[in-house]
């Protein structure tokens, strides 16, 4: 008489892997955010050559055109009055700039233009989206927000 012996392999409990997977995912998220955190921790200063640029479109017509662009792209983060309190602002780190502060009003048009063009962290780079003229118009409009504080 032949006896067949059933061979069994130990069953792994799949629940034991969940903490390990969670740790791996968490580590990946932290690692992927380090470059952004490092980038936004340092002061954001435009290069001297960029900061020295003068706004060639600083009239009332340009401010009106800039207001149109602001209402399309900037209001979500910077808010309708430029105080950095738009609906998306709460979820952003660092918080969007408040254009009505003396720190921002003390920056040159060239510095703001460079930041708008290059972007950093959550601030999108707009040099590939808007023309140079449109970006200067936007700076002209931002300056009007400072006058209303």
Task: Please outline the helices and strands.
Elements: H1 17-41, H2 48-51, H3 60-78, H4 102-105, H5 109-118, H6 132-147
Protein described:
The longest helix has 25 residues, at 17-41. The protein has a domain at 48-147: Cytochrome Bc1 Complex, Chain D, domain 2. It has 6 helices and no strands. With 149 residues, it is mostly helical. It is elongated and about 100 Å long. It has helices spanning 17-41, 48-51, 60-78, 102-105, 109-118, 132-147. Residues 26-39 have low confidence and may be disordered. Helices cover 52% and strands 0% of the residues.
What structural keywords apply?
single chain; 149 residues; mainly alpha; Cytochrome Bc1 Complex, Chain D, domain 2; 0% strand
The name of the CATH architecture of the domain at 48-147 is Orthogonal Bundle
Low-confidence stretches: 26-39
List the total number of helices: 6
Mean pLDDT: 83
**Percent range of helical residues:** 40-55%
Distance between the termini: 98 Å
Rg to the nearest angstrom? Answer: 25 Å
Number of strands: 0
The major sheet is characterized as:
none
CATH superfamily of the domain at 48-147: Cytochrome c-like domain
Structural class: mainly alpha
Précis, in short:
With 149 residues, the chain is an all-alpha fold. The protein is built from 6 helices and no strands.
């Amino acid at each position: 008489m032949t006896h067949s012996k059933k061979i069994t392999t130990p069953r792994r409990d799949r629940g034991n892997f969940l903490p390990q997977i969670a740790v791996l995912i968490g580590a990946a998220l932290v690692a992927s955010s380090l470059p952004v955190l490092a980038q936004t921790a340092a002061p954001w200063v435009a290069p001297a050559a960029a900061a020295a640029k003068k706004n060639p479109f600083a009239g009332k017509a340009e401010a009106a055109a800039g207001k149109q662009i602001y209402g399309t792209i900037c209001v979500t983060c910077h808010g309708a009055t430029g105080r950095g309190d738009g609906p998306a602002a709460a979820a952003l780190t660092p918080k969007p700039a408040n254009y009505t502060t003396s720190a921002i009003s003390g920056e040159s048009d060239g510095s703001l233009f460079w930041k708008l063009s290059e972007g950093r962290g959550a601030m999108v780079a707009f040099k590939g989206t808007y023309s140079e003229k449109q970006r200067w118009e936007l700076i002209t409009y931002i300056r009007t927000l400072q006058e209303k504080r």
